[in-house]
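Figure-free illustration: sequence to structure, shown twice.
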Amino acid sequence: MAETKPKKKAEVKKKVPERRCVGCRGTFEKRDLLRVVRSPEGEISVDFTGKKSGRGAYLCKNLDCFKKAKKSGVLRHALECEISDEIMDIVEREIKFEMENADD
C-alpha cells in the first residue's frame, strides 16, 4: 500500500471571491468592486461592507463603466427596480472618490 503525504498548510491557497461588473462584464475580486444593494424592503443603497442582505449588483470603480451602466439601464435591470437620480449620484461620487484615492 502506497503512503500518501499529508498536504502542508502552505500549499493550500485560499480562494478569493470574484464577482462580475454589471457595466463592463469584467470579472474582478469582490473587494475591488462597489456593491449596490436593494434591501428586502426595497431601499437602494451603496453597500460598503459587502454584507448587507438583499439583491446586489457590482460595479467596477471606473467612471466610464458607471456611465455605460447608467445609460444602458443594466443596474436597474440587475436590481429589478427603478433607481433614483439621488442614488445614482451617490454611486458616481463614491466611484470618483475611489478613483482619486486609488493612487494612495
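We now fold a second protein in the same way, so the two outputs can be compared directly.
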Amino acid sequence: MEAILTTLKAIIDNFGSAIIVPFIIFIIALIFKVKVQKAFLSALYAGVSLMGFTLILGAFTPIITPMVKNMSQVMAGITGVNLNTFDVGWQATSVVAFATSAGMIYLGLGILLQTILFLVKWTNIFQPSDLWNNYSYIVWGAMVIFKTHNFFLGIACMILLNLYSLFISELVAKRWSKYYNYPNCTIIAMHNVEPAIFAILFDPILNKLGFNKLKLNPKSIEKKIGFLGEPMTLGFFLGMFIGILGSVNKLGTIAGWGDILEAAIATSAVMALFPKIASMFAQAFAPITEAARRFMGKAGDREWYIAVNDAVGYGEPATLTSGLLLIPIMIVVSTILPGNQVLPVVDLLAIPYMVQGLVAVYKGNMSKILVAGTIWFSLGLLMCTYTAPLFTQVAMAAGFAIPAGAAMITSFNILGKPMLGFVFLAFLSGNPVFIAIAVAVYAAMFAVFKLKNKEIVAYLDRQADKNESAEEAGV
C-alpha cells in the first residue's frame, strides 16, 4: 500500500494539471464513444491551454510579487503595526500537507471516495480531474491529528471537508460554467470555492443596498468609457495602479518607473491573452459535451461537471481586476483589523483564484465582489491568526523552514476559510456534539439542495441576472 501511495504522490508531484487533466479528458471522451482522433485533439487542446495558463501566470507572478511585498512593508512602516505571522503562500502549504503521513493516506483515499461519490450520483462533480487540490483538505486534517493524536479523527475531518467542498462546488457549478464559458466545467478547490456560500447568503443584503444597480462590470465599463474600458487597456491602467502602490519609495527613479510600466504591460498582456487561451480550453470540452448529451439522453437526464483547476478563470477581466484591486484593500485591512496578526504577502496574488466563487454568483459585478471579498477575507485573516500557532508546529514537524523574522506562518488562501475553519475547529475540539453539528449542517444543506435542485439553480440565475442591465442582456 505504501508503495502505491508513494507512486501516486510521485505522479501528482511530477505530472501537473496540464498532463493529468488531458489524460482524464481523453479517457472520458473514449467512454462516451468519441472518435479517437477527436478525443486526442480534445485532450491536446486542454493540455496546451492549461500549459498556456501556467506559462502566463509563471511570467506574471515574479513581476507583481515584489510590488505586493513592498506594498505590505510600506503599509506596516506607516502604521507601525507589527504583524508577527507571515503568509508563506499556498505553494508552501501544499508541500507541508503532502509531507505528512495523513497526506499520503488521503492521496489514495480521496481519489477512491471522490470517484465512488460521482459513480453513485451522490455528486455530479467529477473531482478526480483536479487531484492536486486535495491538499486543501489534508492540511486541516493533519493539524487535527497533530493536536489530538487521533488519526481517524483527522481523516474524518478531511472527508467531511471534502463533502462540504463538493456540495458548494455543485451548488455553483452551473453559474461558474456559464459565466466563465467552459461547458460542463467547474472549480472544486475548497480554498477557492468556499466564498460562494457567503456570496449567496449576502446577495439579498447587497441588493437591498442597491449594489446590483451599480452595473460595475467589464462590459458596462467598456460601454461607458470606450477603448479605455477594453480589457487590454483596463489591464494596463490597473497594472500601473498596482505598480505605483508597490513602488512608492522608488517613484523618483528611472528604475522605479521601469518596474511600474513593466507591471502595467504584464497585466495588460494577461487581460489580452487569457481570453484567447480560454476559448481554446473551451474547445477541449465541445466533443465530450455533445457526446455526453447523447449518452445521458439514453441513460437519463443527469447533468455533470468536470472539475478543472481554477487557473483557467484567473485572467477573466472581472476576476483579475477585482482580485488585483483587493490586494491593497487587504493590506490596509490587515493593519487595522482588531485581533489580526497576519501579514498577507505571498497569497495576495492568489486573490484572483479566491474570488471566482464571488464572481460567478455576482455575474462579474465588481462592486459586490469587492465588498463581499473584503468582509469574507477579513474574517479569513482572523481564522489564519487563530490557526497559525498549530499550523506552524505542523510545518516545523514536516521540516519546513520558518522565514527569518517570522514568529509564525500561515497561508492566507488555504487557512483563511471562516466557514470550513469552524468545521475543522469542531474536530479539533474532539467534542462529539460539535462534530455532530458540523455533520448535521452538511446533511441539511445537502438534503435541501438535492430536493430543490432546479429551484435553487434557477434562483441563483435570477439573482445573477439582477447584476446585468437590459442592454447587456440583449433585451
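Summary for the second example: The CA atoms of residues 14 and 397 lie 24 Å apart.
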